[in-house]
Amino acid sequence: MKKVLAALLFVSTTTFASDYINLSVDHKDKLNSDQVNHVYKLNYGRKFDNGLVVEGRMEDETVRNPSKQEGLMQIKVEYNFDKVFGWKPYAGIAVGQKNRPSVSFPFYAPEAGIKTDIGNWQVKFNHRYRAPFDSSNDYTTTENYIQLGYRVTKNDTIAYKYGRERGDRDYDINGISWNHSF
Description:
It is a single chain. By secondary structure, this protein is mostly beta strands. It is built from one helix and ten strands. A ten-stranded antiparallel beta barrel has the order 1-2-3-4-5-6-7-8-9-10. The longest helix has 13 residues, at 2-14. The radius of gyration is 17 Å and the shape is globular.
């Protein structure tokens, strides 16, 4: 772990980078249930000129019917590849901690997708798989989503996301987000 942190520190001080912050709210409807979740997310990341992205994320999830609170914290490393036919593929891995009222567990989450810009519009397709490190518990999920964003200014983008989460719980997801780079 010390070697990974040292390598990230070396990369962060030897290449040019830009930071960003992302605020988003997801509305998650649990299938075949009256349960509704609202997920409030805060991401802070650094994009390097070599395609590497390092990002931290915190989530606060408010659950209704029944009423409860959940949370998540993670750190992710992602690599953006060169464009292929106008689309930029990316892949990453996150590790973190999911907290629910009845259980908390550390997890890993590989994800991959493609994205493109068309004028001020951005389109992104993403697949994320989350699994606990302890394979004896059954809190594995997959999430697939499409996101459509609009660059309002050079540094600000707003976006709409539609997705599906399947696994230990099944949800349809609608979300909005604001991203600011500096």
